[in-house]
Amino acid sequence: MKIYMLNPPFVENFVRCGRWQGAAARSGGLDYPKWLAYATGLLETEHAVKLVDAPASQLHTADIINDVKQFQPDLVVVETNFSSLGNDIGVTQKLKEACGATTVMVGPPTARFPEKILGNGGVDILALYEYDFTLLDVARAVGRGLPLKNVHGISYKENGQIAHNPIREYTTSEDLDRIPFVSSVYKRHLNIKDYYLSQTLYPEVQIFTGRGCPFHCTFCSWPENLMGRKYRSRTADNIVDEFEYICQNLPEVKEIFIEDDTYTINKNLVLDVCRKIKERKLDITWSCNARATLDYSTLQEMKSAGCRLLIVGYESGNDEILKTIRKGVGTQQMRAFTRDAKRAKLMIHGDFIIGLPGETNETAEQTLKFIRELKPNILQVAVATPIPGTKFYDWAKENGYLLVDNLEESIDQSGYQKCILSYPDFTKVDIEHYVNRALKEYYLNPSFVPVALSNILRRHGLHELKIMLMSAKVFLEYLGAEKRQAIRSV
Questions:
Q1: What is the mean predicted confidence (pLDDT) over 104-132?
Q2: How do 48-53 and 2-7 pair as beta strands?
Q3: pTM to 2 decimals?
Q4: Do 82 and 231 reside in the same domain of the chain?
Q5: N or C: which end of the chain has fewer CB within 10 A?
Q6: What is residue 21's predicted lDDT score, i.e. its pLDDT?
Q7: Are 61 and 91 in contact (CB under 8 A)?
């Protein structure tokens, strides 16, 4: 059968498959449609599949309707996120009207709002949580005219009624080794030069080596709405096989980014991957998300195997907030880790959040001070956004701190994050002020010059400079838009 996989049109540079509510990055970056791509690779083992990324290709709904009419799929799969849900339901309905195919919606909101989504005439089936193998079962059932009642992990409409099947068990490590390399899906379906991350060399590819996060940060969406807390991983051989595939088949790629929430949780796996990279003499640069718990020896091994950068979720400079959000790592450990990472000559992309439970002017000032102390090579500061399904969302809603009932109001017309929280002693205005102040005071301060120079004076210095200039251009445009908005509101 023929299957059409769609990351639907919305605002420019919109990232649906990120860890937040779906938003455009201030840096101008654009993620691959990672989860759709993994599902595409699995479905291609049995079906004819077309993967279309509308934001990356700058396609509008009319373009997609024409493409669908030409492809004539039997099944249309549409990805969604909380902030684009209404738009995505509308696009799905138009596609169903255009081609009459069975429609499936995937993505975090499906686990939280099945009745709302299926109450619309355009969506036939929801594939909940982790959905690659679920879609394979759906395709088999639809293609063979079998009843959907035996497919685990879906909600669907039947005779005008909404049915909820048992939730599907999460994948195993063995399952992950069975899924085709996502990099091969990118090569067949996408233009890798359409994608850009502010923290990686360009062009890059994004892969997963494992899924599931056993930690319990109260604000994190993916473990609750997508891939669960059960940690499972590919084997070291399978991971390095994909590295080798990229070297041989995508030679223009400058860096591999490992998207796992918890790649560094299994130190033995990390070391095994490093050893095999060196044994195969692969000349590849890679980076990953890392928890601030790695020891110096492991960091050295990662560097020697081609690791360039670590994205680290520091979140806050206040230990009470870190305890409240169940981060499991304190500021002292973060300081020691950062010193060791820099000593190993690894770059640090520091992630911080303003507006978490317990935030005050005092704690926000502590976070700004902590940022200046750590001096990350790249800084990201986000507005705290409670995502449905998380403990943070439940707490904010129960206490009346949420300013909106619909997360589609959590982004502005350009797709940038808006603050939807306000506390009695730390308001929406305070949160937005500290986010913008943190970024401006860090990047526009002369003290950042030595950091910027250290970024450039590396092996890939010209590429480091290129991505820095690309990010700076979009960031300055964002600041200009912010200034114009402030003038209009006076």
A1: 95
A2: parallel
A3: 0.94
A4: no
A5: C
A6: 83
A7: yes
Q: How far apart are CA 37 and CA 227, in angstroms?
A: 15
Share of the chain residues as helix, strand and coil, in percent rounded to the nearest 5:
45, 15, 35
Strand pairing report for 347-354 and 378-383:
parallel
Quick: pLDDT tens for 314-337.
999 999 999 999 999 999 999 999
List the single range of 59-63, 161-165, 261-265 with lowest mean pLDDT.
Answer: 261-265
CATH code assigned at 433: 3.20.20.70
Claim to verify: residue 379 and residue 334 sit in the same structural domain: yes
355-361: average pLDDT: 98
Name the pLDDT band for 480 (thresholds 50, 70, 90). low
Count of structural domains within the chain = 2
Q: Are residues 345 and 445 in the same domain?
A: yes
Evaluated on CA atoms 266, 267, 272, 275, the torsion sign reads positive
* Interacting residues of 174 by C-beta distance below 8 A, sequence separation 6+: none
Task: Find the length of the chain.
Answer: 490
Domain co-membership, 145 together with 281: no
Q: What is the CATH number of the domain that holds 74?
A: 3.40.50.2300
Domain boundary among 125, 142, 164: 164
DSSP string for residues in 3-20? EEEEE---STTEESSSSS
Helix, coil or strand: residue 314: strand
Is-cis flag, bond preceding 214, omega within 30?
no
Query: Per-residue pLDDT for 485 more than 80?
Result: no
Instruction: Supply the range of the domain harboring residue 276.
Output: 173-486
